[in-house]
Amino acid sequence: MSLSSALGNALSGLTANSRLTDVISGNLANALTPGHAPRTLGLQARQGGGVAVTGITRGLDPVLLGDRRLADSAALAAETRAALAAALERALPSADIPGSLTDRLGRLEAALATASARPEDELRLDSVLQEAGSLLGALNAASEEIASLRSRADAEIAGAVDQLNAGLAEVGRLNARILAARSSGQETAALEDLRQQEIDALSGLVPLRQLDRANGVVALVTTGGALLLDGRAAQVGFEPSPVVTAQMSLAAGDLSGLRLDGRALQGDGVGALGGGRLGALFDNRDRIAPEIEAALDTLARSLVERVETLTPPPAAGLFTDAGARLDPAAVTGLAGRIALNAAVDPARGGALFRLRDGPDAASAAPAGSAPYLAGLAQALAGPGPLAGDVAALESRTARTRLGAERETSLAAAQAAELRSLELEGGVDSDAELQRLLLVEQAFSANARMIQTIDEMMQTLLRI
C-alpha cells in the first residue's frame, strides 16, 4: 500500500468519525424531543480502501408507531367525551348538591305544605311562587347550558377541521421537500422528524394509518378507509352554526356534517373520519348532549302535564310552555321554555290568590280554602312521584360522567403503555456514550495514522 492510499484511508476514517460524532451528539441532544427517531450512520468499506458513509437511518418501529397513534386518538376522543360529561353533571348536579333539581323540588314541596296549612298568608304563597320559579329557572338554565355545550362542540369541530386541513397541507409540503432532498442526495432525517410530529398531531383528530410510498414519501388513510393524502391533500369541509338550539339536529339538516373533497359524509356526519377527537366532538354535539336534553324535556313535560290537569283548557296551568298550554307535538326544547303562568305573578300583573284558587280564577275565593295548593302537592307526589323522575335524570347524568371517566382512564393507560414501549426504542444515552468512546478511539487511531504517515514522508523528503 502506498503512503498516499494509506493517507486517503485515514482521512476517510476521520470523515466518518466526524459524521458519527455529529449523529451521536444529535441523538443525545434530542433524546426528549417529540418525533425524534434515533439516527444510525451507515458505513461500508470503500473500493480501494477506506470507509464510505452510505447515509443516515432513522430507527423506529412502524407497527408500534401506528398502534401508538391509534391509542392516542382513542385517548383524546375519550377525554373529549369525558369533558362534556363533566360539564353536563355540573349543569345537572346530583341530589345531594344544594341547588340541584332534587333540592329545588323538595323546597317547592315543603313550601306547598306550609302554604296549605295557612293559605291566607301571602308570605307563604309568595314562598311557593319563589320556589316554583327557582325550579323552573333551574330547568331553563340546564337547557341553556346544554345548548351552549352543543354550540361549543360545533365551534370546536370547525377549529379541528381547520387544523386537519392545515396539517394535511403541511405533511404534503414536507413530502415534497423530502422528495427533492433525496433527489439531490441530501439527508432527510430532520424533515422526516418534522413530518412525524405533524402526523402525530393529526392522528389525535382522526385515527390514521401511514402508508410508505417511493422516495420517502408517505400517504395517509383513516382507519375507516378515507384517503386523506396521497400526493395531493384532501380537503375537509364543514359549515359551523353560530348558535345551536335544542330543536337543531344533523338529521333535519339544521347542522353541518363533514364533506370530503366536496362530498358529504353520510350517517353520523363524520363517516370514515370518526374515531378520534373530531368524531367525539360530533358525538358530543349530536348524541350525548341531545340525549340529556331529551331527558330534561321529558321531565319538563311531566311537570307541565301533572299541573295542567288541575286547570281546564284552554287556560294554561301554573307551569306553561312559554305562557301557553303544552303542545304534545312540540316537546323538544321544552325545558328551556317552561315558565310560570303570569297570572300568579304580581310582578307581571298577576295575583298570588290564584295559587290558592287556580291560574284561571277570576277573583279570590275565601282565604281559608286552598284547593289548588292541595292539588299541586298531590300532582307532584303521584302517581309516580316527580322526585323519582328528577333523581333518575340526575343519576343518569352522573353515570354518563363515570362511564366517560372509566373510558378515559383505560384509553389513557393503553396510550401511555404504548408510548413507554416506543420510548424504550428511542435514544439510549448510555449506548450513545459508549459509541462516542469507540468513535474517540477510532478518531485517535486515524489521527495517529496520519501523524505516522507525515513522519514517514518527512523522512523520505530529507533523504
Task: Summarize the structure in words.
- This protein has helices at residues 3-29, 62-91, 101-117, 122-183, 189-205, 277-308, 334-337, 354-357, 371-381, 386-424, 429-462, and strands at residues 39-45, 51-58, 208-212, 218-222, 227-230, 232-233, 236-237, 259-260, 263-264, 319-321, 338-340.
- The chain folds into 2 domains: 3-59 and 426-462, no CATH class; 66-417, no CATH class.
- The longest helix is centred in the N-terminal third of the chain and has 62 residues, at 122-183.
- The chain is of the alpha+beta class and 463 residues long.
- The strands form 4 sheets. Strands 3-4-5-6 form a 4-stranded antiparallel beta sheet.
- The relative contact order is 0.15.
- Helix 2 (62-91) packs parallel to helix 5 (189-205).
- Tell me the helix content: 55-70%
SSE sequence, one letter per element: HEEHHHHEEEEEEEHEHEHHHH
| Average pLDDT rating | 88
User: Which regions are unreliable across 5 or more consecutive residues at pLDDT < 50?
Assistant: none
Overall number of strands:
11
Provide key terms for this protein.
11 strands, 463 residues, three-stranded antiparallel β-sheet, alpha+beta, 60% helix, 11 helices, 2 domains, single chain, four-stranded antiparallel β-sheet
